[in-house]
From TrEMBL, chain A:
Protein family (similarity comment): Belongs to the peptidase T1A family.
Role: The proteasome is a multicatalytic proteinase complex which is characterized by its ability to cleave peptides with Arg, Phe, Tyr, Leu, and Glu adjacent to the leaving group at neutral or slightly basic pH. The proteasome has an ATP-dependent proteolytic activity.
Span of domain Proteasome alpha-type subunits: 8-30
GO annotation (BP), single: ubiquitin-dependent protein catabolic process
Species assigned in the record: Auxenochlorella protothecoides (Green microalga)
GO CC terms, sorted: cytoplasm; nucleus; proteasome core complex, alpha-subunit complex
PANTHER family reported in the protein's UniProt record: PROTEASOME SUBUNIT ALPHA/BETA
Protein name per UniProt: Proteasome subunit alpha type-3
Location in the cell: Cytoplasm; Nucleus
One Pfam entry name: Proteasome
Annotated keywords: Cytoplasm, Nucleus, Proteasome
Automatic annotation (TrEMBL), chain B:
BP terms from Gene Ontology: proteolysis involved in protein catabolic process
Domain of life: Eukaryota
Protein localization: Cytoplasm; Nucleus
PANTHER family referenced in this protein's UniProt entry, alphabetically: METALLOPROTEASE TLDD, PROTEASOME SUBUNIT BETA
GO cellular component, one term: proteasome core complex, beta-subunit complex
Name of this protein: Proteasome subunit beta
Family: Belongs to the peptidase T1B family.
UniProtKB keywords: Cytoplasm, Nucleus, Proteasome
Stored Pfam families: Proteasome (PF00227)
Primary location: cytoplasm
Classification via InterPro entries: Ntn_hydrolases_N, Proteasome_beta4, Proteasome_bsu_CS, Proteasome_sua/b, Proteasome_suB-type
Role this protein plays: Non-catalytic component of the proteasome.
Length: 248, 239
């Protein structure tokens, strides 16, 4: 997959002879080995879902949050190092608050995404810091409509109809490509996300699915998907998987 | 450390807010059995001119609190912005916490009082109304920071015109209909007797179901009194 960057991988301010920044690539590995996070931009909103692996039976349910509101109309789901994720979310909340204080208007999605990308990028420039080991999926509903962005550890930002990051991203992205997210309603999107998370999840270990959305139904406010919808979506997902197993 | 904004060119005292410009008049507030009602008209007056006739002087702060204001309306808009920022912070914290009416009341009292101490007051009379934990909350804050809570409050002219009526007819266990009728009676008197008022009102309700900022409405009035028809009849030397 990647070469050993002997000597060129000690500092993020060093390029390798073949033009790679190894520290950034290593940061990307932190994201790639974390729980899967999926985002879908549906016709009436954005749905974000995170696969939260339960590391201990003593963990209080719903306590380890992976989705965070950034402002009323936007929220972030993070994959990778949770503490780095918090730093990114804090910055996003600051940017949104400062923008609103200055312009009197809620921060547009593309402005927030680019500001977040610039911030994450800064940590790839200087030797005395390390890159953020997170990819943030940003769901926004502003005047242009719903939008989904992903900011990776390098500070690159892209806008997506649907994407996935983390351990199960390959399988998840295959599933997403079979869908047409722009034609789904968020309710259908919730079911699709739940199904994808259950499908790509390694059956041995227990996990919690955390879903959040910003859509017409939520009044264009970022919130956790109501528990009944999540429970129903998970139930349908498990049934679908069992049905497939029985067919095999 | 001297506050630079207190230094004026020429070493004289710096003048801060001396008088209000665009003002709102009375705000009324009463409790009833299942909640509270706040009422005001929708006028932003510029001295004697009835300049802004659909100015909303009641604001929803969150699902359990409403704020009503009289006095300088730009200061009221600033206060609303402060509260919105606080509410947005609470929202982003995402821990289920939201400001209770008593907390909003405390916070605003301190803001108002501190500005007064800087001799640069926010020129407002505020009413904070809310419903929390099955109990109503109704508080009044003056521009110098005087504050209290009660079952009925009124600001400005409402103090003189509405409170006598409320003292006589208000009961904390009124139904919503009775409470609305009582407020309409008070609003009518305020409209008749307060020069700086218009016949366009709003009533906000806070109850267990949350906040309902009602649609503006007008009240029936009667100007058909004998003396109004011929005002000069009994005047000696009118001008």
């Amino acid at each position: 997959m990647s070469g050993i960057g002997t000597g060129y991988d000690l500092s993020v301010s060093t390029f390798s002879p073949d033009g790679r920044v190894f520290q950034t690539e290593y940061a990307q590995k932190a994201v790639d080995s974390s729980g899967t996070v999926v985002g879908l931009r549906c016709k009436d909103g954005v749905v974000l879902g995170a696969e939260k692996l339960i590391i201990s039976k003593m963990l209080v349910e719903n306590s380890n949050r992976r989705t965070f509101p950034v402002d009323r109309h936007a929220g972030v789901a993070v994959a990778g190092l949770a503490a780095d994720g918090r730093a990114v979310v804090d910055r996003a909340q600051s940017e949104a608050q400062q923008y609103k204080g200055f312009y009197g208007h809620r921060i547009p999605g593309h402005v927030l995404a680019e500001r977040l990308a610039s911030y994450v990028h800064v940590f790839n420039l200087y030797w005395y810091v390390r890159p953020m080991g997170v990819t943030s999926l940003l769901g926004v509903y502003d005047e242009e409509g719903p939008a989904l962005y992903a900011v990776d550890p390098a500070g690159t930002v892209h806008r997506y109809y649907g994407t996935a990051v983390g351990k199960g991203r390959q399988a998840a992205r295959n599933e997403i490509e079979k869908l047409r997210p722009g034609e789904l309603t968020v309710r259908e999107g919730v079911r699709a996300v739940a199904q994808i998370l259950h499908r790509v999840h390694d059956e041995e270990k227990p996990f919690e699915a955390e879903l959040a959305w910003v859509c017409e139904e939520s009044g264009r406010t970022f919130q956790r998907v109501p528990q009944e919808l999540v429970d129903e979506a998970e139930r349908l997902a498990k049934e679908a998987l069992e049905a497939e197993d029985m067919d095999d | 450390m001297v506050d630079p904004s207190a230094l004026a060119a020429g070493g004289g005292t710096r003048k801060h807010t001396q008088y209000p410009y665009v003002t709102g008049t009375s705000v009324l507030g009463i409790t009833y059995k299942d909640g509270i009602l706040l009422a005001s008209d929708t006028l932003g007056a510029y001295g004697s001119t009835k300049r802004y006739k659909s100015f909303q002087r009641l604001t929803k702060v969150n699902n359990c609190t409403v704020l009503g204001a009289g006095g300088e309306l730009s200061d009221y808009q600033y206060i609303v912005r402060l509260l919105e920022e606080l509410a947005d912070d609470d929202f982003c914290m995402d821990d289920g916490h939201h400001m209770k009416p008593a907390e909003v009341f405390s916070y605003l009292t301190r803001v108002i009082y501190n500005r007064r101490n800087k001799m640069d007051p926010l020129w407002n009379s505020l009413v904070v109304g809310g419903w929390y934990a099955g109990k109503p909350f109704l508080g009044s804050i003056g521009m110098i920071g005087t504050h209290f809570t009660d079952n009925t409050v009124a600001t400005g002219f409402g103090n003189h015109l509405a409170r006598p009526i409320l003292r006589e007819k208000h009961r904390p266990d009124m139904s919503e209909e009775e409470a609305r009728a009582l407020l309409r009676e008070c609003l009518t008197v305020c409209y008749y007797r307060d020069k700086n008022s218009i016949n366009r009102f709003q009533i906000a309700r806070v109850s267990a179901e949350g906040v309902d900022l009602g649609e503006p409405f007008a009240l029936p009035t009667n100007w058909d009194h004998a003396l109004f028809r011929d005002p000069a009849a009994h005047a000696v030397g009118t001008w």
